[in-house]
Specification:
Number of strands: 13
Structural class: alpha+beta
Bound molecules: zinc ion
Order of helices and strands: HHHHEEEEEEHEEEHHEHHHEEEH
CATH architecture of the largest domain: 2-Layer Sandwich
Largest sheet: 5 strands, mixed
Number of domains: 3
CATH class of the largest domain: Alpha Beta
CATH topology of the largest domain: Nucleotidyltransferase, domain 5
Shape: globular
Number of helices: 11
Strand content: 15-25%
Strand order of the largest sheet: 9-8-7-10-11
Helix content: 40-55%
């Protein structure tokens, strides 16, 4: 599919400008497309690169006098899609034509009517990508259902309704193991069978971390999006903050940026000004840096209101977001 998409772009450029789009430029364009369509995003980037590499080679042959590259059918890629004759039994067995029932593991509940099932072969095994029409059946919550989220380090996030989402710290847990396995890899002789095995082991570990993280972010963002019409977050430059060495590992690990992206396409996200959200009392509005006694403790120097500092910040984010929405409505 990526191959065909790339070819379409090439053909367009060839027809209109008689020029050839380089693999690098193509990769950039496809990245943009990836952001628009979920299913392309679901395709691992290495796969995208591999397809573009093949397409590039096909064009090099064409310039040497070969035929113009043709659109490819599915049989060339390592995936196969089913549009009918499949079923899912008890959330654990996938029944496919010719293959029969295959046991599979799913990280999320499958709901909605299944439209297509794509089975992909990757280095680490077989994966099934199940597309449903569930989006249509998700009910949009009432406009008054709103929530403020304070993203933190101690907790992944604290919600204005008082819920604390623990930071999973997947990476930290597996980091040690990854370090050990990597060290072992460095000791293995090049070209040997043991090295090959170890490369696979490290790859599997990376994959595990990636999957756990993505699963966590999807679950949290879906839950929040299902419950709320508006989600208010701080307008932080996550990328800028990630450049700060001490914070970077935690931020990238907890995936704030990815989390916000997910929220963005699942619900209405309003980014509010983050200034002093940790110093203002959510009860009386008094602002004082002294009110923040410690990382987790907030005691207002004016009214004595005491609560968890992150929860207090989440409440401030909520009231800023609410004011913002009201303002926007007044204009409209
Ligand atoms: Zn106060």
């Amino acid at each position: 599919m990526v191959y065909n998409m790339g070819l379409e772009i090439e053909k367009e450029a060839w027809r209109n400008q008689q020029r050839y789009v380089s693999r690098y430029e193509l990769s950039k364009q496809i990245k943009d497309i990836r952001q628009t369509y979920d299913w392309v995003e679901d395709c691992p980037f290495e796969t995208v690169e591999r397809h573009l590499f093949r397409l590039d080679n096909a064009f090099k042959k064409f310039f040497k006098g070969g035929g113009f590259p043709r659109f490819q059918s599915k049989k060339h890629s390592h995936s196969i899609s089913f549009k009918q004759n499949f079923s899912i039994i008890a959330n654990h067995y996938l029944k496919l034509p010719k293959l029969g029932a295959v046991k599979f593991f799913t990280s999320a509940e499958i709901f909605g009517e299944i439209k297509t099932v794509t089975v992909k072969k990757e280095a680490t095994g077989y994966y099934a990508c199940i597309m449903t029409d569930a989006i249509k059946s998700i009910q949009c919550p009432d406009e008054n259902q709103v929530i403020g989220i304070d993203m933190g380090l101690k907790y992944f996030a604290v919600l204005s309704d008082g819920r604390f989402i623990e930071n999973p710290k997947h990476f930290a847990k597996y980091e040690r193991r990854l370090r050990i396995e990597n060290r072992s890899l460095a000791r293995k002789k090049k070209g040997g069978n043991n090295r090959k095995k170890q490369v696979r082991k490290v790859g599997l570990l990376h994959n595990k971390i990636k999957n756990l993280r993505s699963d966590f972010l999807h679950k949290q963002s879906t839950r929040i999006a299902k419950e709320n019409h508006f989600v208010f977050v701080e307008d932080l430059n996550v990328v800028g903050m990630a450049k700060n060495k001490n914070l970077s590992k935690h931020i990238l690990d907890s995936g704030w940026g990815a989390f916000r992206e997910l929220l963005l396409y699942k619900t209405n996200v309003v980014a509010v000004n983050p200034k002093h959200t940790s110093q203002i009392c959510s009860h009386c509005g008094h602002q004082d840096s002294e009110s923040r006694k410690s990382q987790s403790e907030f005691i207002c120097t004016s009214c004595g209101h005491a609560m968890n500092a992150d929860h207090n910040a989440a409440l401030n984010i909520l009231s800023r977001g609410t004011a913002h929405v009201r303002e926007r409505k007044a204009i409209a």
